[in-house]
């Protein structure tokens, strides 16, 4: 049925029916209320031909194909939800919305954002700036000195649990409501807040130190009096800043001068956009031509820059020099800029600062840090609300049974306070201390050395992840290219057979060298020999030689020689031999692939020793230097997917057109062959980046004809790009296929098994990268992010809603295939079909988004959280990943150790979640059991609102008597780490959240009610003559029951757990001697006391032990077979 969707405008007899359907559909959309649906009728009227495409339904379910009526309702139904009205809306969250809106309005009033404006920046004169610009300081802190305490308190009291205890503690200042001592309420609350504030302060101080380190980096600033050192944070708009090689650019600048003769430099932008290619930046020609550096102050010039923008790939501005006649005007574009966060890769550069601090591109693309709350914390918050309702219900029942006598409302409040232990304040203390313990364990794990836990509030999130969003460059790959394969059609060379290539190159050059030596008079005979060569089948040696020469000439690589002390700086390269020394040479190019190819030709004997704008020099294995004149260069573009050069050999005057590019672009250009497509597929499956290399010999006449047409096309005013492309394409016909090269972007160690493990654990992996589509697809396959058996759907570039519609319908018909989509197409899909696209993408086993900006990465993460409600984790290694990491539920910043992520999730994530779930429920049980005893006690004694245990007994119960054993649950483990690593499928169960749910909570409530009832009734049945004995018997039995329940809950014993049990028991026994006001020492030393306590404890615990034993026998957990 899927293939029968009409994909073109209907112009048939069915047009009338279609028109009726359109009217029906338009009526539906207009009735849909505000939102995307409401805009559609007007858009249909505007778009003539494409409107028919847009009207077609985007079907989201198989049922839609069978039922024509439902087709048109599928799209808006995804978005339109029934809105609640009036009181119902207010109760169901409307109050929260109103409060938030009011707070936001107040904040906006207090902190009105300054309007961003275009600016005129005078070179070297920051004081001439008309506006005040922000400081150039980086700030990643959440709070300031003034907002720290209010901010932390707000974060704490937004949890119902803490707010409830604040109210309860404050109520103790009212004499009529006072129950026991003030410290029994305020001490635990104070301790919770102290722990939280201390932890936040430490995290905040670490952030402050990291910011300070970056802001204190020193740079050279050019002034009239010479160079001065200035801190990064003190740089102002208008300053002239000198940035050395391998130094970070401190602010957004316009590039004025460089030490490179060509007037250009390379910069690394991987921290800004994730792209591994080096970018070529060009200095403003007017300032580059100035004789000396100090002359920048002798001219009167300014830069006009557009207002600060988010887009890191565009810039518009002008450079004006006023003191020349006539004034010089130069237009400025993205190639004249140096953005903050990039790194200078060649030479020393001087730039004028145009944007600082918050207005730089990198900061504008970074979101503000937010406090993250874990899913477990939110679930516990829900449970505490349920407990509060139970508390209110219990208090109302007590007052009702009293018969509403006297001041019943006061009694109600007193009951609320008496039973307030139902919601234990120690829950937050224990959980926070548990989180700190998990962080410490992660940092101490020798299997993942060097791990630092930056935020100690969300370790349990690592055990609940469904989506993992990872960067590519530096995260999955090392960004180091290695040449792996050369294929000539009949013969293939790999890493083991490179020495054969070297021998062929040496042989062929020794032959040509001897020929050249025997023929010194003219260059004509070799040309004749060359022209007759195609008639005979070439030997392997000559084909290897041609291929290597083509790879050595067809590129944009420049060799750079580090200047050494004492070397003559003005000497010409061609004349000074020591400049060619291999150890002193480094290669620079816009792409690491290019460098890998040139380094490979050097390793087989053909070395690139020099390159400028017009020529290139190669050194042969015998040491001879060959000079080639660079006639034309056609750079690589994402549209053409190929690059080419036309060179003239100085020794033979031969003109050759070399070209290399992607197999998709080159397969139609080269002569017919039967091997290229197959071999490209083979190399791609190995995870290699392939390039097809071809050549074409040109006569002088052919080249002159081409040059005149090419120059004419470049001067045309209309459709220049198309005309230039057409002229170049006239050459790109019937080219001789030389070879196919394969280069590998080396993966980080252990990436493949780690991704395999995470996939088995049920985690869906999305790769978000700023890199090119081909590169991203290649890495997705080589890293096994996309498994070998899976198809890959490459989403075609779309620009309009109609195109997006058709492409989504095409993608919808594919099953179990990975999606590869570019950032631009993604933007269009999200604009028109957000819900539909996310629903389709979430069904894919893997998704690759390429050409993503930092803000797009963060948006994808936010949409994924919003549409699925599942937990997400973002992994990255650079500044361009910060927004994504902040947007995710859990973020991991790594330095080339991706293999550790597997252990972090399946071992530490699992144990953190399981332990916190057990700890949280046990602490609730501890509160519920004592509240049940209080309820039984009050009901027996005529519903009196009198506390059963007072003063120190209550404080001791929550601290010294039970704290250590209960907290020792953070050492428990249900599955050994090596088992969890071996069977990652166990992780799938965690995402269902079964360890902490209303079901498990209800089980603990029933246990608490049973045990509390048995302990209290038992003590009353075995009542002695005095009331003090009831307290002694019931409290001792309670402590013993708690210790036994901890032992019942533990799955794997640790020696510290045993110590904690005996320590707590020892503390209790020792304290009996001092608590004379609560216990009768003479009675508690008798045999009667011992047997009564033992009997009550056995009755309260034995049934539970029996049930646990039977459950393990009859219904063991999924992992029990693995551990046995």
From TrEMBL:
Cofactors (names): Mg(2+)
Comp. bias intervals (Polar residues): 509-533
Enzyme class: translocase
Localization (cell): Golgi apparatus, trans-Golgi network membrane; Membrane
Residues annotated as catalytic: 471 (4-aspartylphosphate intermediate)
Domain named P-type ATPase N-terminal: residues: 129-186
Sequence intervals crossing the membrane: 386-406, 412-431, 923-945, 951-971, 1001-1021, 1027-1048, 1055-1075, 1081-1105
GO cellular component terms given for this protein: endosome; plasma membrane; trans-Golgi network
Span of domain P-type ATPase C-terminal: 896-1116
Binding-site residues, ATP: 471-473, 594, 636, 660, 689, 769-771, 851, 857, 880-881
UniProt GO molecular function: ATP binding; ATP hydrolysis activity; ATPase-coupled intramembrane lipid transporter activity; magnesium ion binding
Domain P-type ATPase A: 227-361
EC code: 7.6.2.1
Region Disordered: start-end pairs: 509-540
Annotated membrane topology: Multi-pass membrane protein
Residues that hold Mg(2+) according to the record: 471, 473, 877, 881
InterPro entries with a match to the protein in the record: ATPase_P-typ_cyto_dom_N, ATPase_P-typ_P_site, ATPase_P-typ_TM_dom_sf, ATPase_P-typ_transduc_dom_A_sf, ATPase_P-type_domA, HAD-like_sf, HAD_sf, P-type_ATPase_IV
NCBIfam families assigned: ATPase-Plipid, ATPase_P-type
Protein name, UniProt field: Phospholipid-transporting ATPase
Species this protein is from: Camelus ferus
Gene that encodes the chain: ATP9B
């Amino acid at each position: 049925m899927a293939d029968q969707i009409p994909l073109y405008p209907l112009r048939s007899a069915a047009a009338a029916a279609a028109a009726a359907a359109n009217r029906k559909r338009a009526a539906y959309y207009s009735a849909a209320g505000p939102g995307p649906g409401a805009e559609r009728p007007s858009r249909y009227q505007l778009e003539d031909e494409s409107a028919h495409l847009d009207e077609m339904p985007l079907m989201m379910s198989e049922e839609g194909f069978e039922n024509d009526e439902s087709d048109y309702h599928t799209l808006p139904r995804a978005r339109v939800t029934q809105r609640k009205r009036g009181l119902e809306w207010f109760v169901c969250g409307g109050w929260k919305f109103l409060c938030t809106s009011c707070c936001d309005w107040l904040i906006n009033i207090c902190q009105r954002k300054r309007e961003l404006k275009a600016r005129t920046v005078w070179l070297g004169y920051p004081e001439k700036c008309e506006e005040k610009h922000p400081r150039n300081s980086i700030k990643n802190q959440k709070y300031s000195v003034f907002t720290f305490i209010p901010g932390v308190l707000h974060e704490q009291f937004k949890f119902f649990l803490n707010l409830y205890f604040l109210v309860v503690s404050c109520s103790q200042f009212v004499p009529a409501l006072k129950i026991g001592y003030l410290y029994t309420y305020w001490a635990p609350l104070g301790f919770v807040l102290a722990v939280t504030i201390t932890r936040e302060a430490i995290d905040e101080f670490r952030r402050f130190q990291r910011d300070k380190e970056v802001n204190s980096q020193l740079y050279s600033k050019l002034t009239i009096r010479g160079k001065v050192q200035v801190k990064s944070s003190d740089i102002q708009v208008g300053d002239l800043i000198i940035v050395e090689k391998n130094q970070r650019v401190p602010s957004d600048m316009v590039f004025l001068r460089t030490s490179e003769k060509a007037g250009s430099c390379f910069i690394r932008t991987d921290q800004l956009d994730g792209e591994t290619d080096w970018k070529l930046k060009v200095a403003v020609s007017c300032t580059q031509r100035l004789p000396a550096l100090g002359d920048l102050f002798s001219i009167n010039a300014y830069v006009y820059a557009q207002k600060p923008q988010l887009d890191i790939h565009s810039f518009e501005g002008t450079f004006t020099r006023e003191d020349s006649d006539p004034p010089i005007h130069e237009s400025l574009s993205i190639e004249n800029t140096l953005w903050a966060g990039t790194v200078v890769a060649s030479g020393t550069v001087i730039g004028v600062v145009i944007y600082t601090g918050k207005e730089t591109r990198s900061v504008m693309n970074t979101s503000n840090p937010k406090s993250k709350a874990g899913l477990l914390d939110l679930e516990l918050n829900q449970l505490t609300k349920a407990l509060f309702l139970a508390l209110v219900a219990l208090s109302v029942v007590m007052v009702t049974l009293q018969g509403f006598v006297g001041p019943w409302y006061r009694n109600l409040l007193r009951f609320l306070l008496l039973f307030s232990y139902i919601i234990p304040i120690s829950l937050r203390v224990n959980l926070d201390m548990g989180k700190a313990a998990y962080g410490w364990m992660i940092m101490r794990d020798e299997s993942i050395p060097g791990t630092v836990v930056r935020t100690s509030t969300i370790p349990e999130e690592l055990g609940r992840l469904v989506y993992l969003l990872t960067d590519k460059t530096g995260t999955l790959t090392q960004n180091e290219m290695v040449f792996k394969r050369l294929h000539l059609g009949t013969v293939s060379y790999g890493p083991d057979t490179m020495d054969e290539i070297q021998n062929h190159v040496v042989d062929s050059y020794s032959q040509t060298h001897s020929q050249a030596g025997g023929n010194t008079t003219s260059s004509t005979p070799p040309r004749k020999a060359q022209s007759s060569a195609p008639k005979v089948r070439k030997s392997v040696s000559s084909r290897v030689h041609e291929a290597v020469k083509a790879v050595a000439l067809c590129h944009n690589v420049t060799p750079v020689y580090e200047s050494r002390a004492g070397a003559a700086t003005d000497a010409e390269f061609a004349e000074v031999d020591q400049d060619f020394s291999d150890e002193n040479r480094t290669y620079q190019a816009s792409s690491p692939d290019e460098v890998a190819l040139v380094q490979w030709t050097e390793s087989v004997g053909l070395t690139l020793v020099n390159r400028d704008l017009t020529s290139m020099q190669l050194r042969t294995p015998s040491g001879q230097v060959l000079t080639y004149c660079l006639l034309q260069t056609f750079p690589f573009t994402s549209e053409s997917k190929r690059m080419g050069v036309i060179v003239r050999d100085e020794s033979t005057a031969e003109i050759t057109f070399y070209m290399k590019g992607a197999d998709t672009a080159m397969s139609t250009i080269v002569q017919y062959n039967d091997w290229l497509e197959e071999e490209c597929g083979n190399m791609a499956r190995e995870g290699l980046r392939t390039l097809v290399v071809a050549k074409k010999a040109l006569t002088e006449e052919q080249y002159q004809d081409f040059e005149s047409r090419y120059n004419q096309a470049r001067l045309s005013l209309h459709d220049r790009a198309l005309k230039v492309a057409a002229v170049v394409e006239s050459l790109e016909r019937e080219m001789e296929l030389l070879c196919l090269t394969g280069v590998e972007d080396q993966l980080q160690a252990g990436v493949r098994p780690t991704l395999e493990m995470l996939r088995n654990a049920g985690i869906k992996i999305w790769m978000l990268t700023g890199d090119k589509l081909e590169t991203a697809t290649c890495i997705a396959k080589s890293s096994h992010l996309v498994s070998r058996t899976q198809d890959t759907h490459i989403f075609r570039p779309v620009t309009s809603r109609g195109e997006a519609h058709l492409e989504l319908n095409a993608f919808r018909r594919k099953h179990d295939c990975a999606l590869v989509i570019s950032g631009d197409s993604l933007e269009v899909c999200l604009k028109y079909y957000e819900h539909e696209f996310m629903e389709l993408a979430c069904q894919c086993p893997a998704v690759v988004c390429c050409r993503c900006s930092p803000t797009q990465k963060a948006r994808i993460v936010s949409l994924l959280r919003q549409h699925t409600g599942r937990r997400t984790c973002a992994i990255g290694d650079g500044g361009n990943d910060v927004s994504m990491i902040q947007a995710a539920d859990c973020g991991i910043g790594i330095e080339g150790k991706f293999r550790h992520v597997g252990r972090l999730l399946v071992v530490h994530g699992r144990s953190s979640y399981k332990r916190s779930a057990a700890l949280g429920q046990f602490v609730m049980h501890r509160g519920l059991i004592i509240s049940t005893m209080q309820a039984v006690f009050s009901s027996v004694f005529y519903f009196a609102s009198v506390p059963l245990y007072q003063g120190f007994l209550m404080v001791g119960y929550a601290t010294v008597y039970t704290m250590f054993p209960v907290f020792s649950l953070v050492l428990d483990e249900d599955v050994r780490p090596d088992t969890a690593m071996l069977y990652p499928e166990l992780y799938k169960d965690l995402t269902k959240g079964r360890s902490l749910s209303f079901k498990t909570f209800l089980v603990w409530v029933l246990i608490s009610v049973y045990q509390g009832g048995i302990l209290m009734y038992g003590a009353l049945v075995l009542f002695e003559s005095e009331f003090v004995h009831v307290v002694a018997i019931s409290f001792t039995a309670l402590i013993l029951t708690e210790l036994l329940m901890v032992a019942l809950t533990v799955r794997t014993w640790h020696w510290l757990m045993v110590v904690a049990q005996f320590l707590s028991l020892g503390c209790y026994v020792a304290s009996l001697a001092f608590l004379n006001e609560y216990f009768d020492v003479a009675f508690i030393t008798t045999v009667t006391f011992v047997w009564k306590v033992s009997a009550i404890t056995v009755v309260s615990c034995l049934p539970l032990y029996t049930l646990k034993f039977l459950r393990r026998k009859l219904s063991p957990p999924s992992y029990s077979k693995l551990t046995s």
